[in-house]
Every structure is written in structure tokens, then in C-alpha cells.
Design a protein that fits this description.
It comes from Muricoccus nepalensis. Residues 5-296 form the Inosine/uridine-preferring nucleoside hydrolase domain. This is Cysteine hydrolase. InterPro entries: Inosine/uridine_hydrolase_dom (IPR001910), IUNH (IPR023186), Ribo_hydro-like (IPR036452). The chain is of the alpha/beta class. The protein contains twelve helices and eleven strands. It has a nine-stranded mixed beta sheet, with helices on both faces. It has a two-stranded antiparallel ribbon with strand order 7-8. Strand 4 (117-121), helix 5 (126-133) and strand 5 form a beta-alpha-beta unit. Helix 4 crosses helix 5 (126-133) and helix 9 (197-204) runs antiparallel to helix 10 (210-221). It binds beta-D-ribofuranose and calcium ion. Calcium ion binds at residues 8-9, 11, 13-14, 38, 122-123, 237.
Length: 307
Amino acid sequence: PRSTIIDCDPGTDDALALWLALASPELDLRLVTVVGGNVGLARTLANARAVVGLSGRPIPVVPGADRPLRGNFAGEPAVHGEDGLAGVILPEGPPAVRAVAADAIRAVLREAGPGSATLVGIGPATNLALALATEPDLAGRVREIVIMGGAWGEGNWTPAAEFNAASDPEALDMLLALGAPLTLVTLELTMQALVTPARVEALRRLGGGACLRAAGDILAAVPPSRRLGGQGHALHDACAVTWLLAPGLFGTRKVSVEVDCGPGPGRGRTHVDRWGRRRAEPRVTLPERLDADGFFALLGQRLARLP
Ligand code: BDR
Ligand code: CA
């Protein structure tokens, strides 16, 4: 199994992504680090502890940045609720480890062999950037960085920018500059993972334990997205984990990506060169197409294994 760190800001779709990872034998989940984002750090941390706790797996959960490299996080309570889990209450999880996310990430990387650790970023990229900025040699330990963030077209936070990229553009830019293999799971991909009432029902029919029930409650509580025609909402972050479990469900291409770190209305936009118009080497893997039925089948099958 792949030695893996997940950095997250739970967040409804982060919770689903964590349970999917916790249920999947392909991943050796070593560490969960937490960043502010969808809601403030105190809530994202409590939510991460609760989500990991419900799975019964003793994975360390470590708090990280409560603000981006510049400015402050804005939060997205309209999607995730004031509590970050759309009002679904989980039992309190085990205490967080008394450490700092960037240090904990570096400690796992130092132990890892060359090119062996996988980093999954499903919130603002602050913690991952801080970890690697102060010890860039550790990038050599990385097998792959998988980021849910960005868009090749319209954003979902500003007209130009997706929420995670907009929340800390400088951090995302630093990760892209590392030169480690990086997969960017953008909005255009994640909007294909459309959670409809029929799909929630299918998931609930699997029965399962407390995790699957909570997952069904959370998915049912997230409001439908106007951009998706009111048919449902997108399960963004679980797509990033699925990429590691079943890459055959995705169609990809290689691209180069630049992040707008300027102060204007384009701040946080990811300029994704899908047609090779720039001379830059296309080093980023861009999943473009998702087999959504396959994705939801895998999600259900895995979540049904959890307690
Ligand atoms: C991203 O923003 C957050 O609201 C979600 O958890 C996801 O990581 C989607 O733009
Ligand atoms: Ca997230």
C-alpha cells in the first residue's frame, strides 16, 4: 500500500474522502493534517477527529494553519453549514496529537524512502506548502502530490477561481514549483461526481455501519448546486482519493499550470494549458473525465466496509 498523508478541511466532501481512504487497503494512511478553510480551524479539526474516530482507526490527526500564507480564510458555510458537516452531528473523536501539521508531515517524509510518500491535499494548500518550503529536499521523498483544487474554466468561489486555490494561491504555486509529480483534480472533473438523491438512496440501501449512515446523512444534507442545474452537488474531495484507488476510472492528459497570485479579480485562478500553447513542459497530470457510476459504486463498496 501507498504511504499516504491527507491534508484536509472537513468539510462535507472531505469527510467522505477521509472515510473512503480509511476503508481502502491500497492506502497506508499515516497521518491526517488539518487546515482551516471551509470553516475555521477549530471546527475542521473537531470534524477531522470525529470522522477518523468513527472509523475506529488510530490515525494521528494534527492541526495546522488557521490562515493562509497571506490574509485570512473566508469559509464556505453556505455549502458545508456553520459546523462544516451540514448539521450532521458525530460523536466526538479522540484528541488531536499535540504537534503542528507541517512538522508532522516532514517527520513522515523523513522516514519515507525516496519517491515513496503520497500527499493528498483537499483543502487550502497551506500546510503542505509550509512543510515543503522549509525543507525542499523532502520533495524527493514524494511519489505523488494529489490536489483537489483549481479549474481550467470558471471558478466556484470567484468567477475566476476555485475555493481551495483561491484560499491560498501562494501555497498552491509553491507546490507546483517543487517539481514533484503532481495531479490536479479540478472542478471540471469533480462536477462529474454528481451526488443526486438517487445516488444517496443507493448508498443508504447498502446498510453498513455508523460511518456509512453518517455519510448518507451528510450527502443528503448538502444543498444542490445551482451550477449543476439543482440536480445535486459535487463530491469534490473524494475524487482526489479515488484517483489513487482506481485511476482507470479517469481519462487524463498532461498539462502545465500557473496560478494567479496577483491581488486582482483573477487571484487564485489556475491557468491550465490543455492545448500546449505555452512552451512550458506539461508536468502536471490533469484528470479530465470520470466514470461517475464506477466512482459511486467504488465509494459505496468501500464505505460499507467501515464500522
Ligand atoms: C473544494 O472546496 C471545498 O469547499 C471542498 O471541500 C473542496 O475541497 C471544492 O472547491
Ligand atoms: Ca475540502
